[in-house]
Amino acid sequence: MRLSIIFFFLVLFPCFNLSGSQSYNAMFSFGDSLSDTGNVVVAGLPYGMSFFGRPTGRCSNGRLVIDFIAEALGLPLLPPSTAKGKSFLRGANFAYTAATTLGFRFFHRRGLSSGLWVNASLSSQIRSFEQMVPSLCNSSQECKEYLSKSLFVVGEFGGNDYNTPIFAGRSLKQVYTFVPKVIHAIHSGVERLIGHGATEIVVPGMLPIGCFPMYLTLYSTWNTNDYTDIGCLNKFNNLTSYHNSLLRRRLQGLQRRYSWTRIRYADFFDPTIQFITSPTQYGFSDGGALKACCGAGGRGDYNVNLEAKCAEPGSDVCSNPSVYVSWDGIHLTEAAYRLIANGWLRGPYAKPPILQQN
């Protein structure tokens, strides 16, 4: 079962245009399956069914948060950085599905490297960005000016760093020791980008993984005290909250040190909890709060079956993904991403909101 769990995670992890409110030269994105727009393309339909009509490498039925941000800023949807024959003058996406924050060596030393599917840490993604920069501008000063007027979205990072040991059966006590190292790597990555001229930076926190239908299926218990009042697993949400609290603290320190920048913490956790707590208030159905849209064909409490994962034989897809929060048990639907993006752009899920000028 462990191999099936790891494989599942690794190969799968109102529209508006307000571009007049804020203007950017370009947008550059780093991250994992919450941001990947095509550097890794594995799953077929029904991925991409609701907007693109075909799989694009996005781990959802349609657009991701990063896509809605691009649309709102009047920028093109970000091409993956590995795309051939594309112009990257208006931005590029360096995110890889299954990417970790920490490098291969960290996991290898702990006997966890077999659980990694790509070698695309945050540091390696930034290295790819650094290799691309000279093609976007003609001098160091010109590059700094160009990048100072570009938007950088660094994450989400952390999910795969923790899921790798969790899925390998390691204790949460050990997983907690990874968190400060992950936060330090994110901190260092942001500083590295600032050194290249970045001034407008968005750093997302983690989703509440204890509310993922896959987690609820794999780690279900009979003890009601293990669950929150909305039916999520306490111990995994506590891990996420710990990561997010350390991340916010480090970003506040960076903001004080680099006062000429705007470093925003972008919240995935609270809006997702709100969607699950009051689904109908946000356009979701009561039945779509903790169940996957694409999965086990209605079987099980959460519509997750490792023998019939989304896009595999035996799986099924709901008739209306827009009323579901979760797409495949570990990623969100386009409808959920749209709402989160709106909150990052206009508030209250990012402070200051991306579209807010000085």
UniProtKB/TrEMBL annotation:
Keywords: Glycoprotein, Hydrolase, Signal. Residues 1-21 form the signal peptide. One of its GO terms (molecular function) is hydrolase activity, acting on ester bonds. InterPro entries: GDSL, SGNH_hydro_sf, SGNH_plant_lipase-like. The keyword Hydrolase applies. Pfam families: Lipase_GDSL. Gene3D superfamilies: SGNH hydrolase. Belongs to the 'GDSL' lipolytic enzyme family. PANTHER family: GDSL LIPASE_ACYLHYDROLASE, PUTATIVE (AFU_ORTHOLOGUE AFUA_2G00510)-RELATED, ZINC FINGER FYVE DOMAIN CONTAINING PROTEIN. This is SGNH hydrolase-type esterase domain-containing protein.
